[in-house]
Amino acid sequence: MKKFRIKKGDTVYVNSGNDKGSTGKVLEVLRDKDRVIVEGVNMVSKHTKPNAKNPQGGIIKQEGSIHISNVQLVDPASGKPTRVGYKFDADGKKIRYAKKSGQEIK
User: Fold this and answer.
1) Cα separation of 28 and 36, whole Å?
2) Which of 5, 44, 71, 100 has its CA 20 to 30 A from that of 35?
3) Please, which residues have CB within 8 angstroms of residue 35's CB and are 6 or more apart in sequence?
4) What does each C-alpha distance from 42 to 19, 57, 65 come to in angstroms?
5) Is 44 in contact with 95 (CB distance < 8 Å)?
């Protein structure tokens, strides 16, 4: 099983692609495809038929997935992109921390 340092709910920085420089919250992690869906990033147009949720039908804008290598976690202390490390706390529980500031990531 692949291990990713980015989880659902994390704030990430997009470091390449058309949306380079933007930040957003991770809505979903697609483990089998090595991709993430980030809020407000890589917006695509989807054509839909009329249904109960959208009785009019038409074109809907929604987030597309981007490769996980194109995003970096945002440091909670400085608000800048950082790498992620792991360490063990006093109870022996594994926690993530920002390598730039050393602060724990919730």
Assistant:
1) 6
2) 100
3) 29, 65, 66, 67, 68
4) 7, 22, 7
5) no
Separation CA 76–CA 49 (nearest Å)? 42
Mean pLDDT of successive 10-residue segments in the chain (106 residues)?
90 96 97 96 96 93 96 94 95 94 91
Task: Round to whole Å and give the CA distance between 106 and 100.
Answer: 16
Contact 90, 22 (CB under 8 A): no
Q: How many residues does the chain have?
A: 106
Q: Hey, is 33 helix, strand or coil?
A: helix
Contact present, 48 and 56 (Cβ < 8 Å): no
DSSP at 68: G
Q: State the CB neighbour count (10 A cutoff) for residue 90.
A: 5
Token pair listed for 31: 């483990």
pLDDT at 104: 93
Residue 66: other Cβ atoms inside 10 A:
20
pTM of the model: 0.86
